[in-house]
């Protein structure tokens, strides 16, 4: 025990001189606002109408991935709301730990069809050349392109810097189509976080408490977590783990109190989805290990319900 507290004090002394930390954070950035345009069928295009077009895409610095969503309607129709920016802002985990599945992004159902090609500037010019287009001499990125699609969301991981273009073509011979699309990137940046000494010490207590929890040293873990929230009462994960310990100890009332505090703090955090997912996973692991503890399922439903709000 003396050795444990000696290590703890040395850790604190080191942290006192390093209250400023740098954290890598990802954010959602609009690359192109929703665009709606009309393309004629190819037969009409040969008579002076437009059956293809291109849009230039300049990726932000430090892009780690990006998405575009699109949908189609037959004929000349008003703009359709895709809402890619708002959806990704809600779904994306700023830490980058939890990936976004493209099928979780809602795209309005399309009624027409279109071809979309991701290309560099040189091939973009060839794409717009009627002769080159007929001969297919332009080159495109296959992962970032789609042919004969009505709607969808495309996730791009291998083209991350510079200027590109999206080439749109109406593959129908006679039927015109309206296309709406939107482009959003995920950018990773260094974020400097200023922390007080108490906040830094609280995080250390919380890490030690979690280690004790994983070793089934519940009394020791509870004591360390209590010190952590005394120093920094905004640690939602600490209250959540204290709730888990009280469930194990069959103290249902204390468990609910700690989970209620955790939920309140999760909802006030910069990334509620991440913390709620962690809390739900931890409680599921507890139930799998210890069985149906009193109140565990009720708290699990409460976490799931609050996560959806």
UniProtKB/TrEMBL annotation:
Where does the record locate the signal sequence feature?
Answer: 1-19
Instruction: Return the Gene3D superfamilies for the record.
Output: Tetratricopeptide repeat domain
PROSITE patterns, sorted: TPR, TPR_REGION
Protein origin, superkingdom: Bacteria
Is ATP-binding among this UniProt entry's keywords? no
Q: Where are the transmembrane segments?
A: none
Instruction: From the Swiss-Prot or TrEMBL record, give the protein name.
Output: Tetratricopeptide repeat protein
Organism from which the protein derives:
Pedobacter chinensis
């Amino acid at each position: 025990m003396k050795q444990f507290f000696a290590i703890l004090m040395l850790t604190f002394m080191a942290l006192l001189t390093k209250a400023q930390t740098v954290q890598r954070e990802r954010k959602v950035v609009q690359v192109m606002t929703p665009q709606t345009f009309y393309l004629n069928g190819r037969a009409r295009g040969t008579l002076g109408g437009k059956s293809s077009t291109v849009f230039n895409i300049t990726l932000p610095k430090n892009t780690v991935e990006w998405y575009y969503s699109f949908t189609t309607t037959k004929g000349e129709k008003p703009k359709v709301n895709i809402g890619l920016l708002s959806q990704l802002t809600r779904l994306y985990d700023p830490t980058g730990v939890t990936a976004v599945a493209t099928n979780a992004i809602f795209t309005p159902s399309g009624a027409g069809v279109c071809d979309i090609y991701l290309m560099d500037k040189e091939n973009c010019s060839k794409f717009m050349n009627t002769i080159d287009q007929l001969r297919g001499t332009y080159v495109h990125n296959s992962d970032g392109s789609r042919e004969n699609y009505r709607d969808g969301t495309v996730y791009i991981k291998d083209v991350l810097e510079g200027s590109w273009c999206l080439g749109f073509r109406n593959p129908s011979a006679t039927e015109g189509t309206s296309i709406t699309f939107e482009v959003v990137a995920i950018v990773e940046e260094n974020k400097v976080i200023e922390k007080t000494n108490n906040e830094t010490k609280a995080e250390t207590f919380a890490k030690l408490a979690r280690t004790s929890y994983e070793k089934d040293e519940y009394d020791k873990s509870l004591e360390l977590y209590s010190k952590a929230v005394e120093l920094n009462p905004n640690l939602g994960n600490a209250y959540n783990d204290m709730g888990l310990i009280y469930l194990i100890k069959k103290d249902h009332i204390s468990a609910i109190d700690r989970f209620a505090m955790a939920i309140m703090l999760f909802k006030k955090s910069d990334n509620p989805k991440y913390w709620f997912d962690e809390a739900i996973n931890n409680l599921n692991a507890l139930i799998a290990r210890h069985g149906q503890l009193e109140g565990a399922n009720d708290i699990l439903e409460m976490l799931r319900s609050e996560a959806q709000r």
